[in-house]
Backbone:
């Protein structure tokens, strides 16, 4: 069926009000849990097919996350749906105020290719818990996963309310011509701009989850085991998620010059321990998703000055689309590798005289999705928090903010706007309607014309919620207020 | 837009280049971090409050000149509401600026987390002509409370107020962070080309249609991935049931319609829906109460604003001249083009495809649509675009519930109109065609804030199971850990799951 027709169907279904019921929402969330539980192997398989992801990575980064998110939403959705009571000033007695969360309607979710399962299903969980009908457009650059979603979702979820539409750029274009009540986009800033412009034609609100150059700052850590912990976490944060192809992956590292050689030695050791002597044959590292991305990343190393700065790695396997963990020491700051988001397994180390300079360095670039800072210096921590801006900041670790669903997950500036995870997912797909209930007796007469000085004074007092003054005023006393003539 | 403002010709040309250097200057100033401090924010809010309170007479005069606004409406709605906003900020700002601690789970143990509010940076506020002071300064004070630098572009359609705002802000506020750019389409275009950290735009019904302008703004913002708040409008319906205290209901409809800038307000009741049987009662009640409020000759009443400009006068006249509504006027209908006055006018039984039902009226004309059964009103409203506000007068609990549940709008009132505007604990904003984002009270602070997530971890408690090589034991443990159940973890450690 053509897209316009599918949308019309979804809209009609939404109008029936079925998706607003708690029962429907819970049934769909349960269905997602069933889908995950019954297809763990299948999901690992397609993730391996598209990206060479190891099953442990697949579980840790995708399957486990979806499961947790669905469970949480299932147990909390009723609570989240409860109207929030708001205080109304006594002046309006009797009155009741509340904020009601209602679904926006027909929602479009664009997911990305690097975490193709969770970036489709996690927003879906949010949209469903908020009572919307949904179209998911999985990335065509992860075709096995896209196929999996298109075939499996209709088997578990209500296909009147949730549809998967596959395809490439032309399908995206067609989708963007339609009128949506919300668009949730995960991807690059360039495409985000196109999506937002299209959304503007229908005044469709958007959430944009983008990326950026997420820096890691490594302060002096004299305790050798702490230093080792930090480096391990940085390695895990760089090459662990999809071989560096992650929006919150560590992009580059800032460290003081005097630590660089011991750091590089440690990196080499840890990389060898994690990925073996020949990482190109390691089954633990994801591969690069496709030829286009492979060439893009390889080109970053073409610049001779950049190539000269490689201190570890650099080997590539074009046939299998593998690039080994590669470390560069002080590549030129105006090279592409330092001006664009790398989104690959190359780690530039930038050395500074003093680690405090890292703040200025980071601020010279667009605001990233995350900043990772390894330090025990409390003053430095506070400085980083107050003098830099990013979606999030994590101290002494990498990536784990993804697991903490009480924290909003989203960017700022070039790294995007809007947020999700936990209740934030529910809110992102909801309209918060302000509702005020009044009664038809007990009137405030001075609300109405004809106007008079008495009414004006009354209203001025009312505004200040000066109830005593109001009483006196009504009894004919003035309180020495400024006269209005 | 009408280029009636001759003052723009006297000033230097404000083009893309000027806008760009203004932006650069403000960014540098914002980089100095001075606007982040609590003291700076409080001093600026107090300064704004002083500016408004010490110049009440000038403000009243400017609004009288721009809109013939009755002084009471200026003092109560424009000045009074702004004062309220400032006072709420002064009272609560410390609390709003405090990081919010959040719980962490066993999955990230040991850790602690918080959400830190920080300013977005340099923001643009573009306001409208109908409440030109309030709609300029209310968002501005929210932006300042959140620690941003802000540029205000007041509406050129209220030139006296625009000019006064420029003067007051220059005199009272910190010029390194708060600036006013006056002008019309050219200046607005130049401003919209820049890369802002947020754009807050209040657009009201007009010659281009607020939906159209909203789209233009969002498209410009899309180029720079700038988040926006769009306060637009729509046709805010009032559904009137029978069996109610009709006198009170009529007065509340009147106060929301003609009492708010003579119907030129984004949340004014736009049109009424009631049953065919009840309509005559409603019309009579409205007539009686209108006369009590505005006398027998409302064209002479000083308690009614005039129509803002001849363009808008023509727009409203078109609605009345529409063939489809001829003979439908049951009250009012008088017009005076020279004085830009239109009397409170009620039309009964207008066809749904008439001009007046095709767009937001934004004026003193109140069409009444009649239905056979009151439930039909819900379908009528839902079939249209989501409005900024929806109102229902009823004592029927069941109908009330249906209404609240099924009508999607920015805000909704039962048994009253427009009051939610002054309740700052309720978010004020639209949905769908009526806009996106909200403000008032803490929502204003939030609108101009980035809530930064911060997670603190220690070096203790590192577990090798995070890292490759991945063994079966590690896999089991990891599953248990992500699953977050203590039992699962114990089982995994014991090797039995």
Residues:
């Amino acid at each position: 069926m053509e897209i316009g027709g599918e949308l019309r169907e979804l809209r009609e279904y939404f109008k029936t009000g079925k998706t607003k019921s708690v029962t429907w929402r819970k049934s769909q969330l349960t269905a997602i849990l069933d889908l995950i539980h019954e297809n763990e192997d299948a999901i690992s398989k397609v993730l391996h097919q598209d990206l060479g992801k190891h099953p442990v990575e697949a579980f840790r980064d995708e399957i486990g996350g979806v499961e947790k998110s669905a469970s949480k939403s299932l147990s909390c959705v009723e609570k989240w749906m409860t109207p929030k009571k708001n205080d109304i000033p006594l002046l309006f007695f009797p009155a009741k105020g509340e904020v009601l969360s209602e679904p926006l309607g027909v929602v479009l979710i664009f997911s990305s290719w690097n975490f193709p399962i969770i970036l489709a299903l996690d927003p879906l969980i949010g949209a469903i818990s908020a009572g919307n009908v949904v179209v998911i457009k999985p990335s065509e650059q992860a075709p096995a996963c896209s196929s999996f979603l298109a075939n499996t979702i209709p088997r578990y979820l209500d296909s009147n309310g949730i549809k998967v539409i596959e395809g490439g750029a032309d399908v995206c274009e067609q989708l963007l011509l339609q009128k949506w009540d919300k668009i949730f986009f995960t991807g690059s800033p360039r495409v985000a701009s196109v999506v937002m412009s299209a959304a503007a034609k229908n005044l469709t609100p958007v959430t944009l989850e983008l990326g950026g150059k997420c820096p890691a700052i490594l302060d002096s850590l004299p305790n050798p085991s702490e230093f080792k912990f930090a480096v391990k976490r940085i390695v895990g944060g760089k090459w662990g998620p999809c071989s560096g192809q992650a929006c919150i992956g560590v992009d580059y590292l800032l460290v003081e010059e005097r630590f660089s050689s011991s750091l590089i030695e440690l990196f080499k050791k840890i990389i060898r321990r994690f990925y073996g002597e020949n990482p190109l044959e390691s089954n633990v590292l994801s591969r690069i998703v496709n030829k286009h991305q492979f060439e893009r990343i390889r080109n970053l190393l073409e610049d001779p000055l950049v190539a000269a700065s490689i201190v570890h790695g650099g080997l590539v396997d074009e046939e299998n689309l593998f690039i080994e963990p590669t470390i560069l020491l002080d590549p030129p700051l105006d090279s592409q590798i330092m001006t664009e988001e790398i989104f690959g397994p190359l780690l530039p180390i930038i050395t500074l005289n003093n680690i405090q300079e890292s703040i200025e360095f980071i601020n010279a670039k667009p605001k990233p999705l995350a900043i990772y800072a390894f330090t025990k210096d409390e003053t430095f921590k506070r400085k980083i928090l107050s003098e830099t801006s990013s979606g999030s900041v994590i101290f002494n670790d990498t990536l784990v903010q993804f697991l903490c669903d009480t924290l909003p997950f989203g960017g700022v500036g070039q790294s995007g706007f809007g947020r999700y995870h936990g209740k934030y997912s529910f809110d992102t797909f909801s309209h918060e309607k302000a509702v005020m209930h009044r009664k038809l007796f007990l009137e405030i007469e001075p609300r109405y014309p004809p106007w008079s000085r008495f009414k004006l004074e009354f209203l001025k007092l009312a505004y200040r919620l000066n109830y005593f003054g109001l009483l006196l005023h009504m009894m004919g006393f003035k309180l020495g207020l400024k006269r209005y003539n | 837009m009408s280029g009636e403002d001759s003052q723009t010709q006297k000033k230097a040309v404000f083009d893309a280049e000027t806008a760009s250097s203004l932006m650069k200057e403000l960014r540098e100033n914002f980089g100095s971090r001075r606007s982040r401090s609590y003291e700076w924010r409080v001093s600026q809010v107090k300064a704004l409050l002083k500016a408004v309170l010490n110049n009440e007479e000038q403000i009243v005069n400017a609004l009288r000149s721009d809109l013939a606004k009755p002084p009471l409406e200026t003092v109560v709605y424009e000045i009074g509401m702004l004062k309220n906003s400032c006072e709420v900020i002064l009272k609560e700002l410390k609390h709003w600026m405090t990081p919010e601690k959040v719980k962490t789970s066993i999955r990230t143990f040991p850790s602690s987390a918080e959400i830190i509010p920080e300013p977005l940076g340099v923001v643009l506020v573009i306001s409208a002509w109908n409440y030109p002071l309030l709609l300029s300064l209310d968002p501005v004070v929210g932006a300042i409370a959140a620690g941003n630098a802000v540029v205000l572009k007041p509406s050129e359609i209220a030139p006296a107020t625009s000019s006064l705002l420029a003067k007051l802000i220059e005199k009272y506020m910190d010029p390194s962070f708060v600036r006013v750019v006056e002008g019309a389409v050219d200046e607005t275009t130049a401003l919209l080309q820049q890369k802002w950290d947020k754009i807050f735009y209040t657009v009201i019904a007009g010659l281009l249609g607020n939906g159209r302008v909203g789209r233009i703004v969002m498209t410009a913002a899309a180029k720079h991935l700038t988040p926006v708040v769009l306060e637009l409008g729509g046709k805010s319906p009032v559904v009137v049931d029978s069996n109610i205290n009709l006198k009170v209901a009529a007065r509340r409809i009147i106060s929301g319609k003609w009492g708010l800038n003579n119907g030129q307000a984004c949340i004014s009741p736009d049109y009424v829906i009631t049953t065919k049987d009840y309509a005559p009662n409603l019309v009579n009640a409205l007539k009686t109460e209108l006369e009590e409020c505005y006398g027998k000759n409302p064209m002479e009443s000083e308690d009614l604003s005039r129509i803002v400009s001849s363009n808008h006068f023509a727009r409203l006249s078109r609605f009345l001249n529409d063939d489809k509504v001829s003979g439908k006027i049951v009250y009012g209908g008088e017009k005076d083009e020279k004085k830009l006055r239109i009397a409170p006018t009620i039309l009964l039984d207008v066809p749904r495809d008439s001009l007046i039902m095709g767009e937001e009226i934004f004026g003193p004309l109140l069409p009444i649509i009649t239905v056979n059964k009151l439930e039909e009103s819900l379908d009528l409203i839902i079939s249209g675009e989501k409005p900024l506000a929806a109102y229902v007068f009823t004592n029927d609990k069941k109908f009330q519930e249906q209404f609240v549940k099924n009508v999607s709008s920015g805000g909704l009132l039962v048994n009253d109109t427009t009051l939610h505007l002054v309740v700052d604990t309720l978010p004020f904003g639209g949905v769908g065609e009526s806009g996106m984002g909200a403000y008032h009270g803490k929502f204003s602070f939030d609108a101009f804030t980035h809530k930064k997530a911060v997670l603190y971890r220690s070096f203790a408690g590192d577990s090798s199971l995070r890292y490759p090589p991945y063994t079966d034991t590690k896999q089991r443990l990891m599953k248990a850990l992500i699953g977050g159940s203590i039992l699962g973890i114990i089982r995994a450690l014991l090797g039995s799951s």
